[in-house]
Amino acid sequence: MISIELLRRYPLFAGQDLDMLKQIAKLAHEKEIEEGALLFFEGEVAKMLYLVLEGGITLTMNVGDVGVYREESLTPLRNGEVLGWSAIVEPHFYSMGAKAVEKTHLIAFEGEALRQLLDNHPDFGYHFMKKLSIVIGQRLVSKCIQLMSLVV
Length: 152
Hints:
The chain is an alpha+beta fold and 152 residues long. It is built from four helices and eight strands, in the order H-H-E-E-E-E-E-E-E-E-H-H. The longest helix is centred in the C-terminal third of the chain and has 30 residues, at 122-151.
């Protein structure tokens, strides 16, 4: 089980009551991946939500023509950043891939169990989704900026 004090350090869980943090901690485990390892693929069924504890993950996207794979990377996600939100938001397929840019230590949350917790505790679910929406919005802006840089 992940420490409640560890979870409190991160914006996604800051300000939550002790009972909710205990329940969230039960859904989490630590994971470590080596530099260059793939955490998940674009289009894969999204089963896990991740929080970067230490290291870096880059989100990747196929920008090649049909039948041709050409990967582009976004700015690496660092300590405290969340990824794999597709495990929480339907249709539960990762919209991008994720690759470690260095040895990376993560917290992994099982998506189905976390969704059930959010459903069973609507007040917590609302606040969690508000914070997750900020992340999603920031990623959309980042993706748009990167797309515009390719066009110009």
